[in-house]
Amino acid sequence: MALDAMRKDLVVGVVGAGAMGRGIAQVAAVGGCIVKLYDAKEDAAKEAQIFIQKMLNRNAEKGRMAQEDAEDAAARIEVVSSMSEFRESHCVIEAVVESLDVKRAVFKELESIVSSDCVIATNTSSLSVSTIAAACEKPSRVAGLHFFNPVPLMKLVEVIDGILTDPKVADFLMVLGRRLGRESVRVKDAPGFLVNQVGRGYNIEAAHIAMDGIADIEDIDRILRDAVGFRMGPFQLLDLTALDVTHPATELIYKQFYHEPRFRPATMLQMRLDAGLLGSKVGRGFYSYDEGKVQLVEEGIVPEYDGRAVWISKVIPEFFEKIRLIVENAGAPIDKGDIPDDESLILVTPLGDDATTASTDQGLDPNRTIAVDCLFGLEKRRTLMKTTITDPIFTASAHGLFGGGKVPATVIHDTPGFIAQRVVAAICNIGCSVAQQRTAAPEDIDKAVKLGLNYPKGPLEFGDFVGADKIVTILKNIYKLTGDPRYRLVPWLRRRAQLGVSLLTQEN
Ligand SMILES: NC(=O)c1ccc[n+]([C@@H]2O[C@H](COP(=O)([O-])OP(=O)(O)OC[C@H]3O[C@@H](n4cnc5c(N)ncnc54)[C@H](O)[C@@H]3O)[C@@H](O)[C@H]2O)c1
Question: pLDDT per residue over 140-155, tens digit each?
């Protein structure tokens, strides 16, 4: 059979009718495929079929599709009672529980049923496609087809080439993905594939920041939401995706990468998982939930700015200008001396350094020094960072000055790279490692991360937006201060920054 994902009578088998399988069946039926849906649990496939009918009807009621099309799509789904009914399928998509043993058993059985040219795809999110395929006599017909939850709403699908996948099989799935209304992105088999690999950068770095005692989780969420533009803070997101789903996947990715430090989970996550703080589904996670509604903590009161003069470091001239404008607009007097007067509030603007280092390196008084993150959030949420010994009077003065108007400000403890710089640099570095390892094409990395994770920018785009040279400075300085290899530069990033070219630049 020539693999033709657009043939009118394409028969798609779906194994597993849980959260993902039912979504896949729905989009396949809407895409005009004849769908056979099977689940090992009695009535599960039937229940899924009823659920899909409801979803399609609702879409028709809301005018998202014609009633007739909804009915036709529903009629294309047949519930089958055994996998032997997949005999005529051109493609089978597996979406059973995330267990290598269960998946390999399913694949073995499937191969004994379907024709020799039937494509078999797995929707696994964290297991290796190549490892699953190894259970098959013909691993060349096996590939990953990784949808996102909830399938009908998430417009992305990753098509994963296992080591032995016939490229024509993945080509077929690329077309099938588009037929199912998704944006198909081609990815090589790798731990976490593309999207889940980059996604670790966000929540792992945030969890390390919380564990380092830099800020509480509400403040970390606020900064990343307001200052960087993430739709959800990392802890809100962890609560939604549930720790019993996310943490084992994080651990698996870390293990599969042979303990690559960039993916090192934070120890508190396992403890919280053991304690049952799984997230919104159980009413308790990083936040508390009352009947499903998150209970947010009010922000503290902003102290009054005490009117003292403000001295601003000129080490990074563009940052000096940004801060000077804010300070002037707030009507605060500027200390224009080469060195600060005795009572002046001292502002430094580090990239990757902590406030203590910025202060001592410049020979300033750490008791009166506050660092301001000038890379992220000056217009939406400002981040102020104390040295270890900043006098509370000076902290309050800076807080009042920067947070007393329309833009809120958050004060955090000292860390190299503030919060936003740390997290964005970590995400960008991981994105560059995905590009470096040729797991996916640079443009696809950005596209997939925006569609699959709803990030405001893709990892490479983030780097180009703030300047790859700045990301390099942040990571170098954090690495210098911490000695932690998780911050070492990926060559893809370093070279492009050195050459002054976009992070999307492919090698000639
Ligand atoms: N939930 C997500 O956010 C998400 C996202 C992307 C990928 N995935 C992956 O999709 C797959 C399914 O996840 P889910 O969230 O739909 O799980 P789920 O628990 O909701 O559904 C799994 C279904 O598989 C059925 N099943 C178990 N063993 C079976 C077998 N041997 N034969 C047939 N059916 C069997 C179960 O009865 C259940 O209905 C997993 O590999 C998961 O990693 C999940």
Answer: 999 999 999 999 999 9
